[in-house]
Amino acid sequence: MSKITTPQNKIDTSIVLQPSVYIIGAGPGDPDLLTLRAYKILASADVILFANSLVPEEILQYCRPEAEIIRTAHKTLEDIVPLMIEKVRDRKSVVRLHSGDPSLYSAIHEQMQFLSEAEIPFEVIPGISAFQIAAAKLKVELTVPGLVQSIILTRISGRTQVPQTEELASMAAHKTSLCLYLSARHVENAQNSLLEHYPEDTPVAVCYRLGWHDEQIWVVPLNQMAECTQTQNLIRTTLYLISPALSGVNARSRLYNPEHTHLFRPKS
Description:
Elements: E1 21-25, H1 36-42, E2 47-50, E3 68-71, H2 77-89, E4 94-98, H3 108-117, E5 122-125, H4 130-138, E6 151-155, H5 168-172, E7 177-181, H6 187-194, E8 203-208, E9 216-221, H7 225-231, E10 238-242
Parallel strand pairs: 1-4, 1-5, 2-3, 2-4, 6-7
Antiparallel strand pairs: 7-10, 8-9, 8-10
């Protein structure tokens, strides 16, 4: 077995930031789940625009004491973007701190458009999404060989309409591991759409405030998803994970099977 050596300074947290906007995914809530790059930038940035209705205050512990903290829960895009532009033009490094991963339901598309039009440089730093921490907490793999090999991330129509080709019932027809965001207020409609294709005893994980100190997870049959949500009075920050993988079936992939050969494990 080869020996792995590590340098004396295992992690270099120093970083020189440019006058720019850094759009950071803070993950679902637990500060320990920030990426190392997100931590480094937070520890060095001049200004933090903080989505305080969705990101816990504990994450601010990594910011410099002299950093300017701007809470944005009460602000609109027309308030936020000019602030970021102004700070960067003042030669400041600016963090726009979002929950989860910026690629999912984070409304960064329009922010990046405005920044590009203003010729303001920006970088996007990914974060852990709620469906990933849900699977970790439940100790499941969402792509189980012979059972399910695809994951759908979606939502039901609400104030923001889903395109007709992506309506929940059509997504449910694939019977994959389905991760349902932003749907607690419309849970009865969601359950009815899912029941058009999934068996009523399909396991559903109802995940509330994942990564926060008051996190809770309930696993119920699909036909009890709405009842559980209403009993617990869940109206926001709730993820539903609907998957055959939650049934606890025994399965094994071919990757580490002795009969499976590949470039690094040729046939003997």
